[in-house]
Design a protein that fits this description.
The complex is a heterodimer. Chain A is of the alpha/beta class. Chain B folds into two domains: 66 residues, VC0802-like (2-Layer Sandwich); 72 residues, VC0802-like. Helix content of chain B is 33%, strand content 38%. In chain B, strands 1, 2, 3, 4, 5, 6 and 7 form a seven-stranded antiparallel beta sheet that branches. The chains are: A alpha/beta, B alpha+beta. At the A-B interface, helix 11 and strand 18 of A face strand 1, strand 3 and strand 4 of B.
Chain lengths: 435, 143
């Protein structure tokens, strides 16, 4: 099979060259961040580390970690390393409670982002002749606009269809001749099912490949998507704090995702001790962004559990590969591609005047679409003898939950003490999805 | 003048009503009237009992969400037009009905209507002026 690269010199560079590039960029980044981000400078000073101590990737472990809470504490722009007039784009994702995690990009950051997305598209067989159908949400979520700019950079014809109205999406695929689909894997499955319901045969579509990410999925789902849509399905990984989609991407071998190592340094650590783990061991994935200007996070703890390997890949790329994340070190859920923390629901209930709310999130997948039901125990303050007052409470909770989480949820009021109490850490989630 | 009604939150799942009635039985509470308002996921059981305070305490102890609400009870003639007469009075006085339920007396001449109104005080005054029989707590608890 012929291999295609967007940036062949870098994607197939000898490992020692990549390492020396990383070392150079790391020391430059640390210097810049130390000079421009007070929070980071204080952390380094506390640890007695100076930028001069960071000369190569081997010095990485001397640096402090960054966690999501740090972004929240410095909400919205406190971690930015450049003045706001250099920021050309802002995205955001859910934080662990009410506040979002806000990320910024300079023009150069956007250009780098385009480049890494173009690499992913080309690795999936894309080129300028393709019609790239982007069914990720557009907006503050990085999925839609991230893929969009990358596909444009590859000079493809971009169809920014966004989410929803599935029948119309299929009509567009038929009429415009979409060749590459970008969406969450669960939406791809849903599209496939809808195709069947509409009586459209997959051979009527021009689709050849799909790039799917923003939520966990299995090899089983990959096979189903490939069958339903008659395509090859590729995985893509990313998180807004580090860049957005494209931090790593799958090649034709489909045995893991190549990390764009000229822009990001990956580590695996023991989530308990914070110690670096050797290649091949499973642990928490940590990224350092070494070319980002606006938000160059140092040793950002993703909370995703994965493994790194640098075996020779048949695609010719020398970038290290990561496995699909196989879990989380926190209680974050990904529902319809959106990050959801149970604590967000708690903060909503507290803001509505509930003291010590008892609640449970029930996540399921019905017809390939994720569903979220939030059970809330009826409290004395919420109870009324009139149905409409109780339904009004339900509506208020639902509206507040939806605006905080950014996804629709069903709210169900249940009897007091009917949600199981646990000793120690409360169990807040029942995830019935088989992923 | 006002009567205490017990309201209980009941999830729509098997066995809830039987549990509530068993608890009431254990505390020797006699039910005078009941109604249930149901939605897809839950219902509100409304009860008039002979000892509302004890019933509230017992159900709370058993973990139910319970409240006591003031309602009014009127006596009407148990014959065609009896209810219409009372409701017309409310309509003419522009008093909205939140909910209501009725039961007949053992003696067979009177029916009783439990009313939860937008404005209970105003309704009581209005019923009095129009000579409608208003039941006292003692009347209804001992019916």
């Amino acid at each position: 099979m012929q291999q295609n690269y967007w940036t062949p010199n870098i994607e197939t560079a000898p490992v020692h060259e990549i390492k020396s590039l990383q070392s150079l960029r790391l020391s430059q980044t640390v210097r810049k961040v130390y000079a421009n981000v007070a929070y980071f400078r204080n952390r380094m000073d506390e640890m007695g580390v100076t930028p001069d101590d960071i000369r190569s990737v081997d010095d990485l472990s001397k640096l402090p970690f960054t966690v999501k809470q740090d972004l929240r504490d410095n909400y919205p722009f406190g971690m930015f390393a450049v003045p706001m007039d250099e920021i050309v784009r802002i995205h955001a994702s859910s934080g662990t409670t009410g506040k979002q995690t806000v990320v910024g990009y300079t023009q150069n950051d956007v250009d780098v982002w385009k480049e890494i997305i173009a690499r992913a598209l080309v690795a999936a067989g894309g080129n300028a002749k393709d019609f790239v159908h982007i069914a990720y949400g557009y907006g503050l979520f990085t999925g839609g606009l991230g893929m969009h700019y990358g596909a444009e950079a590859m000079k493809a014809s971009v169809i920014p269809v966004s989410t929803g109205n599935t029948q119309r999406q299929i009509q567009i695929m038929l009429d415009y001749g979409s060749t590459i689909l970008c969406s969450t894997p669960s939406y791809a499955l849903y599209l496939g099912e809808t195709l069947k319901e509409m009586g459209v045969d997959k051979s009527q579509l021009k689709l050849k490949a799909g790039i799917f990410g923003a939520e966990p999925w299995t090899e089983q789902m990959r096979k189903e998507i490939e069958n339903l849509l008659g395509i090859k399905a590729y995985d893509i990984y990313g998180l807004s704090e580090v860049m957005g989609p494209g931090v790593s991407f799958e090649c034709s071998e489909q045995t893991g995702m190549h990390i764009n190592e000229d822009h990001f340094i990956a580590e695996i650590i023991d989530p308990e001790t914070g110690k670096q783990l050797p290649e091949g061991e499973q642990g928490e994935l940590v990224f350092t962004a070494i070319t980002k200007e606006a938000l160059p996070l140092i040793r950002y703890r993703t909370r995703d559990i994965a493994t790194l390997t640098r075996e020779k890949c048949s695609c010719g790329r020398t970038f290290i590969k990561m496995t699909k994340p196989c879990g989380r070190t926190d209680d974050m859920l990904i529902i319809r591609g959106v990050n959801v923390f149970p604590s967000q629901v708690e903060s909503v209930l507290l803001s509505l005047g509930q003291t010590a709310p008892h609640y449970m999130l029930i996540v399921d997948r019905v017809d390939n679409l994720d569903t979220l039901e939030i059970q809330v125990e009826m409290s004395e303050s919420m109870f009324s003898d009139a149905v409409r007052h109780i339904e009004e409470q339900e509506r208020r909770i639902r509206a507040a939950v939806e605006s905080t989480l950014g996804i629709a949820a069903k709210v169900r009021l249940v009897e007091p003490k009917s949600i199981q109490r646990s000793e120690g850490k409360a169990k807040r989630v029942i995830d019935k999805r088989k992923i | 003048m006002f009567i205490k009604q017990l309201s209980v939150f009941v999830e729509n799942k098997p066995g809830r009503l039987s549990e509530i009635s068993t608890i009431l039985e254990q505390h020797k509470i006699d039910i005078r009237a009941l109604s249930i308002a149901d939605t897809t996921d839950f219902g509100i059981l409304r009860l008039i009992v002979n000892n509302p305070d004890q019933a509230e305490k017992s159900l709370k102890e058993a973990g139910f969400a319970v409240s006591l609400t003031q309602v009014i009870a009127i006596g009407i003639d148990d014959k065609p037009g009896g209810l219409a007469k009372a409701l017309n009075l409310l309509y003419n006085a522009n008093i909205g009905v939140e909910y209501m339920y009725a039961f007949v007396s053992r003696k067979g001449e009177k029916a009783y209507v439990i009313l939860r109104l937008e404005d209970n005080e105003k309704a009581v005054e209005m019923f009095k002026q129009n000579g409608v029989e208003l039941l006292e707590c003692t009347d209804i608890y001992s019916l």
